[in-house]
Amino acid sequence: MVDYSVDRNLAILGINNPPVNALSFHVREGLFNGIKQANADRRVEAIVITGKGKTYCSGADIREFSIPSAGKGLVTLGHRIEDSDKPVISAIHGNALGGGLEIALFSHYRVANKNAKIGFPEVLIGLLPGAEGTIRLPRVTGLAFAMDAIASGRRFDAQEAHKHGILDTICDGDVLQEAKAFSKKIIGQPLDQRRLSKTHVKDAADVDIKFEEALAQIKRKYRGLIAPILCLKSVRNSAKMSFDEAAAEEMRLFGELLTSSQSIGLRYSFFAERSAPKWKLPCGACADNTTPVDVKTTGVIGAGTMGSGIAVCLIRAGIPVILVEKNQKMLDQAIKTISRILTGSVKLNRMTEKQREHSLKLLKGASTLDELAGVDMVIEAVYENLELKREIFHQLDKICKSSTLLCSNTSTLDIDNIASATQRPDKVVGTHFFAPAYIMRLLENVYGTKTSPTTVATVMELGKRIGKICVLVKTCYAFVANRTNQPFGAEASFMVEEGALPQDVDTVLENFGMPMGPFKVSDLSGIDVGWRIRQEVAKALGLKLTLETRYRMGERITTLADRLYEMGRYGIKTGKGWYRYEPTNPRKPIPDPDVAKMIQKHCMDMGIERRNIPAQEVIERCLFSAINESFRVLEQRIAEKPEDIDVIWQYGFSFPRYGGGPMFYASQVGLKKVFEKICIFHEQFPYSSHWVPSDLLRKLASHSTEIPMDKWTQFISSSKL
Ligand SMILES: CCCCCCCC(=O)CC(=O)SCCNC(=O)CCNC(=O)[C@H](O)C(C)(C)COP(=O)(O)OP(=O)(O)OC[C@H]1O[C@@H](n2cnc3c(N)ncnc32)[C@H](O)[C@@H]1OP(=O)(O)O
Ligand SMILES: NC(=O)C1=CN([C@@H]2O[C@H](COP(=O)(O)OP(=O)(O)OC[C@H]3O[C@@H](n4cnc5c(N)ncnc54)[C@H](O)[C@@H]3O)[C@@H](O)[C@H]2O)C=CC1
């Protein structure tokens, strides 16, 4: 785990723990023993700590935080490094993150390759740099930089690190060679001033002002998160207390965070996010054994909300797009919108003006499908209408070259049905983006019965290329995202019918951690979109829709959203929806008394008695109904693993990362408790089939002990009840 070698007068300690050189138990032991050995070795005059492979060290092994600690702690190791009689140089390439940066700060000198990335990302997993990082960094950089870097968790480059004194020198080439050259300058120099524990925070006098400024900023930026605040407090301590007192307090705060529900949720999310793209098909094909085809050119059909957003994602990643729209006015409008979105990216420093111009050159508008004959991939984003989509796929099949992949951005429709309109069902797949497509990170890729592994691999790879978090799911009505979100939204609307107002429900869920309540989201994505979907379903089922009903096919429904549609309130796009929007601030939802009146009249007409709905009921009805549906999705193998559902909720619906997602939330509440509550709601609301308890959940809840999440799917085929 740590390779020890001696090169003339230098001991080289090479951290060798692929893939990221995390500081696991054996690495800590190896470094500790290496420093000891080097100090005892007469040939050695200086010690270099370096990383083998692609990186120096990416910090603590995050998995070890969830098991009892063993062996030497990072602080003990760090003190051994700092106390070394022989100078220790950290030679950094790749990443020096978290505990890795702390090792570097325990070292007496730091040299780095110019491409190295440095940072304290602990806050992103709900922690603080607990091996004296919050006490040492301000001693090097001053308070303002340390507060910003530690509370934001951002990674910065070697140049910035050098400017703030973190690095002594930066090199172009091999960092180990640079460290060897550097050692010649420092061997024999006194070490005391290089030991950060012996130094002071230079701008300590300004600590209160800097703390208040930083606190105000992070409270705005990271609403509801505890770790950024404790990060700041710990940095403040570095200036107000002695080194040892501040370090002891840092350890206490670290312990507090380590066991906090937020950090546990964020650590879960870290691994869930990495497990989601590791797709697997029932035939055994998976990410590791399937090669994607190279997508060089694309077509997007439909230049509406989604088509324009998808086109932005593609051209921004350097992929040419032919945007086909039958309505010239819509096309002109879309091209203007796309240009405006990219201008916004330039303003936010996310791209340069030159990149914007280059991206726009990759976009070509067109009015017929014939233009798509030669592209490698088409993404269809026309209205949610099965016949229309089938007709388009039928035509594309004839027009496009035989290798072209045909993707649909449908939000609900069966991929098998769409694929059956072509002679190439193996190349048909769902690519479900989320609105606004150029912002939301999720791409829910949907495979049909005949979709080939190569097609799946290609859309998963394309998603990664355009910066999306991809999750693969099996086709079914509404797939995983919209299917599990549907009961959540239905319960939110039922509660509005029973006594709450849209803003009440939104506020409770926003306080829970959702950045936007479901009624604000509905206004954003368009009330007409949901209306069209309901019309489609009704048409497919041969139903005639009416506003004066509370039940359809034995199922409870509410027609409140349809009433808004009838009033022309389509959401933000019409300036009115569940809320109203002023032209001067068209994205700010304002509660609208007209909506309250409409709701009250609806209730009176339908004979619904309104009552007070407590906040806890809002949370339980929204979340537990989604959880129940999620368990069904798992038992039907629509989603492969619970983490996939959680990632979908985080990146598709902005479920707070610290909350993990509905599946993780259920695991934290306890499956027994969740199941019992679902049974109670089922009795209370017998006409909502989403309350019929999932068999899988029943099996898991009936177990005498809580079953860990990674074992849940093993119970699908188990007959145990
Ligand atoms: C009083 C008590 C004192 C206690 C003191 C505590 C000291 C501390 O201050 C605590 C810490 O160090 S906390 C850890 C700080 N470091 C981080 O958060 C870095 C996390 N990793 C990354 O950002 C990217 O993986 C990275 C940028 C490094 C690489 O990105 P890539 O995109 O190249 O690769 P990934 O796909 O993300 O990762 C490759 C595989 O490695 C796993 N992994 C990454 N970082 C890990 C880490 N720190 N611990 C454990 N596993 C880790 C990752 O899960 C993936 O493996 P698979 O999931 O199997 O694919
Ligand atoms: N709006 C949303 O939040 C989301 C929508 N979706 C799905 O994306 C698809 C598109 O939805 P939106 O962009 O919201 O619709 P939209 O109504 O904004 O845009 C649809 C566009 O398709 C064009 N179009 C219709 N038939 C066409 C044809 N034969 N050839 C070329 N263009 C044609 C229309 O003129 C219109 O500009 C739907 O399947 C929808 O379910 C998926 C995720 C989210």
TrEMBL record:
GO BP term (any one): fatty acid beta-oxidation
E.C. number(s) listed in UniProt: 1.1.1.35, 4.2.1.17, 5.3.3.8
GO molecular function: (3S)-3-hydroxyacyl-CoA dehydrogenase (NAD+) activity; delta(3)-delta(2)-enoyl-CoA isomerase activity; enoyl-CoA hydratase activity; NAD+ binding
Name this protein carries in UniProt: Peroxisomal bifunctional enzyme
Annotated coiled-coil segments of the chain: none
Organism: Plakobranchus ocellatus
Subcellular location: Peroxisome
Domain 3-hydroxyacyl-CoA dehydrogenase C-terminal: 479-581, 618-703
SUBUNIT field: Monomer.
UniProt entry tagged with the keyword Glycosyltransferase: no
Pathway(s): Lipid metabolism; fatty acid beta-oxidation
Keywords, sorted A to Z: Fatty acid metabolism, Isomerase, Lipid metabolism, Lyase, Multifunctional enzyme, NAD, Oxidoreductase, Peroxisome
Primary location group: other
Cross-referenced PROSITE patterns: ENOYL_COA_HYDRATASE (PS00166)
Database matches in Pfam families: 3HCDH, 3HCDH_N, ECH_1
Keyword Phosphoprotein belongs to the record: no
